[in-house]
Amino acid sequence: PAPPRPRKGRKLGVYEVNLFSAELFIERFCMTGGNSPIGYLKAYHTNLYLSADPDKVHEALEAGIAAATMFTPDKMTEVSETQLRVAFDGDAVLFSDESEQIYKAHGLDKFFEHEKAHENRPLDHGPLKGFLEVLGKLQKKFYAKGRRMDCPIRTYLVTARSAASSGTRALKTLRSWGLEIDEALFLAGAPKGPMLEKIRPHIFFDDQMFHVEGAAEMGTVACHVPYGIAQRVARKGGKDKETSPVVK
After folding, report:
1. What GO MF terms are annotated (predicted)?
2. What pLDDT, on the 0 to 100 scale, is given for residue 105?
3. Is 89 part of the annotated catalytic residue set?
4. Model-level pTM greater than 0.85?
5. Which of 33, 62, 66, 239 is 20 to 30 A removed from 95 (C-alpha atoms)?
Protein backbone atom coordinates (compact mmCIF):
# COMPACT_ATOMS: atom_id res chain seq x y z
CA PRO A 1 0.00 0.00 0.00
CA ALA A 2 1.01 3.63 -0.34
CA PRO A 3 2.72 5.08 2.73
CA PRO A 4 0.69 7.67 4.65
CA ARG A 5 0.81 11.20 3.31
CA PRO A 6 2.78 13.33 5.73
CA ARG A 7 1.26 16.50 7.11
CA LYS A 8 3.08 19.20 9.02
CA GLY A 9 3.83 17.95 12.50
CA ARG A 10 2.55 14.45 11.78
CA LYS A 11 4.82 11.50 12.51
CA LEU A 12 4.84 8.23 10.61
CA GLY A 13 4.08 6.14 13.68
CA VAL A 14 1.01 4.77 11.89
CA TYR A 15 3.15 3.38 9.09
CA GLU A 16 3.40 0.06 10.92
CA VAL A 17 -0.40 -0.19 10.83
CA ASN A 18 -0.35 0.11 7.05
CA LEU A 19 2.30 -2.60 6.84
CA PHE A 20 0.30 -4.96 9.01
CA SER A 21 -2.80 -4.34 6.89
CA ALA A 22 -0.74 -5.43 3.88
CA GLU A 23 -0.20 -8.79 5.62
CA LEU A 24 3.57 -8.34 5.68
CA PHE A 25 5.27 -10.41 8.37
CA ILE A 26 6.98 -8.04 10.83
CA GLU A 27 8.84 -9.38 13.84
CA ARG A 28 10.82 -6.38 15.05
CA PHE A 29 9.24 -3.13 16.20
CA CYS A 30 9.34 -0.93 19.27
CA MET A 31 6.80 1.03 21.29
CA THR A 32 8.55 3.95 22.96
CA GLY A 33 5.68 5.62 24.82
CA GLY A 34 6.22 8.90 22.99
CA ASN A 35 10.01 8.93 23.39
CA SER A 36 12.30 9.12 20.39
CA PRO A 37 13.00 5.74 18.74
CA ILE A 38 16.31 6.93 17.27
CA GLY A 39 18.42 5.44 20.03
CA TYR A 40 17.22 1.95 19.10
CA LEU A 41 17.91 2.19 15.37
CA LYS A 42 21.49 0.91 15.45
CA ALA A 43 20.51 -1.93 17.78
CA TYR A 44 17.92 -2.91 15.18
CA HIS A 45 20.60 -2.71 12.43
CA THR A 46 18.44 -0.15 10.63
CA ASN A 47 19.47 0.47 7.01
CA LEU A 48 17.04 3.32 6.34
CA TYR A 49 14.85 5.50 8.56
CA LEU A 50 11.95 7.42 6.97
CA SER A 51 9.71 9.85 8.80
CA ALA A 52 7.48 12.87 8.24
CA ASP A 53 9.14 14.45 11.28
CA PRO A 54 12.26 16.38 10.15
CA ASP A 55 13.56 16.65 13.72
CA LYS A 56 13.66 12.86 14.03
CA VAL A 57 15.37 12.63 10.64
CA HIS A 58 18.07 15.09 11.74
CA GLU A 59 18.54 13.09 14.92
CA ALA A 60 18.93 9.85 12.96
CA LEU A 61 21.46 11.38 10.55
CA GLU A 62 23.51 12.69 13.46
CA ALA A 63 23.51 9.14 14.84
CA GLY A 64 24.96 7.87 11.56
CA ILE A 65 21.73 6.31 10.27
CA ALA A 66 20.62 6.75 6.64
CA ALA A 67 17.48 8.86 6.99
CA ALA A 68 15.17 11.16 5.06
CA THR A 69 11.94 13.10 5.43
CA MET A 70 9.27 11.46 3.27
CA PHE A 71 6.67 13.28 1.18
CA THR A 72 3.88 11.50 -0.66
CA PRO A 73 1.95 13.22 -3.47
CA ASP A 74 -1.84 13.34 -3.41
CA LYS A 75 -1.90 11.52 -6.73
CA MET A 76 0.79 8.89 -7.12
CA THR A 77 2.21 7.72 -10.43
CA GLU A 78 1.63 4.05 -11.21
CA VAL A 79 4.81 2.08 -10.53
CA SER A 80 6.06 -1.42 -11.33
CA GLU A 81 4.65 -4.27 -9.27
CA THR A 82 7.51 -6.62 -10.18
CA GLN A 83 10.59 -4.42 -9.75
CA LEU A 84 11.58 -2.07 -6.92
CA ARG A 85 13.07 1.10 -8.42
CA VAL A 86 15.10 3.40 -6.16
CA ALA A 87 16.50 6.72 -7.44
CA PHE A 88 19.25 8.70 -5.73
CA ASP A 89 20.70 12.15 -6.12
CA GLY A 90 24.49 12.21 -5.98
CA ASP A 91 26.12 15.01 -3.99
CA ALA A 92 25.10 15.19 -0.31
CA VAL A 93 23.08 11.97 -0.71
CA LEU A 94 25.31 9.13 -1.96
CA PHE A 95 28.41 11.33 -1.89
CA SER A 96 29.62 13.94 0.58
CA ASP A 97 28.96 17.65 0.00
CA GLU A 98 32.65 18.32 -0.76
CA SER A 99 31.96 19.48 -4.32
CA GLU A 100 29.00 21.62 -3.29
CA GLN A 101 31.23 23.41 -0.79
CA ILE A 102 33.60 24.34 -3.62
CA TYR A 103 30.72 25.68 -5.69
CA LYS A 104 29.21 27.69 -2.83
CA ALA A 105 32.57 29.21 -1.89
CA HIS A 106 34.14 29.81 -5.30
CA GLY A 107 31.50 29.50 -8.04
CA LEU A 108 30.79 27.23 -10.97
CA ASP A 109 34.07 27.64 -12.89
CA LYS A 110 36.15 26.75 -9.85
CA PHE A 111 33.89 23.77 -9.24
CA PHE A 112 34.57 22.40 -12.73
CA GLU A 113 38.32 22.98 -12.26
CA HIS A 114 38.20 21.18 -8.91
CA GLU A 115 36.34 18.16 -10.30
CA LYS A 116 38.72 17.86 -13.24
CA ALA A 117 41.78 18.10 -11.00
CA HIS A 118 40.37 15.50 -8.60
CA GLU A 119 38.73 13.23 -11.16
CA ASN A 120 40.65 10.19 -9.95
CA ARG A 121 40.19 10.89 -6.24
CA PRO A 122 36.99 9.31 -4.91
CA LEU A 123 34.48 11.50 -3.15
CA ASP A 124 33.83 10.78 0.51
CA HIS A 125 30.64 8.89 1.33
CA GLY A 126 27.30 10.60 1.91
CA PRO A 127 24.48 9.63 4.29
CA LEU A 128 22.78 7.11 1.97
CA LYS A 129 25.83 5.24 0.70
CA GLY A 130 25.16 2.43 3.17
CA PHE A 131 21.60 2.01 1.93
CA LEU A 132 22.84 1.66 -1.66
CA GLU A 133 25.31 -0.96 -0.42
CA VAL A 134 22.49 -2.98 1.13
CA LEU A 135 20.48 -2.84 -2.10
CA GLY A 136 23.59 -3.95 -3.99
CA LYS A 137 24.01 -7.00 -1.74
CA LEU A 138 20.40 -7.99 -2.37
CA GLN A 139 20.89 -7.57 -6.12
CA LYS A 140 23.96 -9.82 -6.10
CA LYS A 141 21.90 -12.63 -4.59
CA PHE A 142 19.66 -12.50 -7.66
CA TYR A 143 22.67 -12.18 -9.99
CA ALA A 144 24.07 -15.38 -8.48
CA LYS A 145 20.86 -17.11 -9.57
CA GLY A 146 21.28 -15.87 -13.15
CA ARG A 147 18.75 -13.06 -12.76
CA ARG A 148 20.84 -10.01 -13.62
CA MET A 149 18.59 -8.98 -16.51
CA ASP A 150 15.32 -9.42 -14.60
CA CYS A 151 16.47 -8.49 -11.11
CA PRO A 152 13.53 -7.23 -9.02
CA ILE A 153 15.65 -4.32 -7.73
CA ARG A 154 16.92 -1.50 -9.96
CA THR A 155 18.89 1.57 -8.86
CA TYR A 156 19.28 4.97 -10.52
CA LEU A 157 21.62 7.92 -10.10
CA VAL A 158 19.76 11.07 -11.14
CA THR A 159 22.16 14.00 -10.89
CA ALA A 160 22.39 17.54 -12.21
CA ARG A 161 26.10 16.94 -12.81
CA SER A 162 27.09 16.94 -16.47
CA ALA A 163 28.60 13.83 -17.97
CA ALA A 164 31.67 15.47 -19.49
CA SER A 165 32.71 17.97 -16.82
CA SER A 166 31.91 16.32 -13.51
CA GLY A 167 30.07 13.04 -14.07
CA THR A 168 33.23 11.00 -14.50
CA ARG A 169 34.26 11.54 -10.89
CA ALA A 170 30.88 10.35 -9.64
CA LEU A 171 31.13 7.10 -11.62
CA LYS A 172 34.74 6.52 -10.59
CA THR A 173 33.76 7.06 -6.95
CA LEU A 174 31.06 4.38 -7.14
CA ARG A 175 33.50 2.03 -8.84
CA SER A 176 36.13 2.63 -6.14
CA TRP A 177 33.53 1.66 -3.53
CA GLY A 178 32.81 -1.56 -5.37
CA LEU A 179 29.23 -0.43 -5.97
CA GLU A 180 27.15 -0.65 -9.12
CA ILE A 181 24.35 1.65 -10.20
CA ASP A 182 22.04 0.27 -12.87
CA GLU A 183 21.42 3.58 -14.62
CA ALA A 184 23.24 6.91 -14.29
CA LEU A 185 21.46 9.97 -15.67
CA PHE A 186 23.43 13.23 -15.97
CA LEU A 187 21.08 16.18 -16.48
CA ALA A 188 23.55 19.11 -16.57
CA GLY A 189 21.29 21.27 -14.43
CA ALA A 190 17.98 20.35 -16.08
CA PRO A 191 14.91 19.68 -13.88
CA LYS A 192 14.71 16.13 -12.55
CA GLY A 193 10.92 15.82 -12.51
CA PRO A 194 10.43 14.85 -16.18
CA MET A 195 13.16 12.20 -15.95
CA LEU A 196 11.61 10.77 -12.79
CA GLU A 197 8.28 10.64 -14.55
CA LYS A 198 9.93 8.42 -17.16
CA ILE A 199 11.72 6.21 -14.60
CA ARG A 200 8.73 5.95 -12.26
CA PRO A 201 10.76 5.05 -9.16
CA HIS A 202 9.03 3.83 -6.03
CA ILE A 203 11.10 6.32 -4.05
CA PHE A 204 13.53 9.16 -4.81
CA PHE A 205 16.12 10.77 -2.50
CA ASP A 206 17.48 14.33 -2.85
CA ASP A 207 19.03 16.93 -0.55
CA GLN A 208 17.23 19.84 -2.25
CA MET A 209 13.56 20.57 -1.61
CA PHE A 210 13.43 22.08 -5.11
CA HIS A 211 13.85 18.61 -6.58
CA VAL A 212 11.74 16.88 -3.93
CA GLU A 213 8.84 19.17 -4.79
CA GLY A 214 9.41 18.64 -8.51
CA ALA A 215 9.29 14.89 -8.02
CA ALA A 216 6.09 15.13 -6.01
CA GLU A 217 4.48 17.15 -8.79
CA MET A 218 5.20 14.22 -11.09
CA GLY A 219 3.53 11.80 -8.65
CA THR A 220 6.73 10.34 -7.16
CA VAL A 221 7.23 9.53 -3.48
CA ALA A 222 10.18 11.81 -2.70
CA CYS A 223 12.42 12.01 0.35
CA HIS A 224 14.43 15.00 1.52
CA VAL A 225 17.89 14.26 2.92
CA PRO A 226 18.75 17.27 5.12
CA TYR A 227 22.52 17.00 4.86
CA GLY A 228 25.39 19.22 3.76
CA ILE A 229 26.18 22.85 3.09
CA ALA A 230 23.06 23.42 0.99
CA GLN A 231 20.93 23.03 4.12
CA ARG A 232 22.88 25.73 5.94
CA VAL A 233 22.60 28.07 2.97
CA ALA A 234 18.86 27.40 2.66
CA ARG A 235 18.29 28.20 6.33
CA LYS A 236 20.05 31.54 5.78
CA GLY A 237 17.67 32.34 2.96
CA GLY A 238 20.08 31.68 0.11
CA LYS A 239 19.02 30.35 -3.26
CA ASP A 240 19.25 26.67 -4.10
CA LYS A 241 22.01 25.88 -6.53
CA GLU A 242 19.47 24.37 -8.88
CA THR A 243 18.48 27.88 -9.92
CA SER A 244 21.60 27.74 -12.07
CA PRO A 245 22.99 24.82 -14.11
CA VAL A 246 25.23 23.34 -11.48
CA VAL A 247 26.07 20.09 -9.87
CA LYS A 248 23.84 17.83 -7.87
Report:
1. 5'-nucleotidase activity; magnesium ion binding; nucleotide binding
2. 84
3. yes
4. no
5. 239
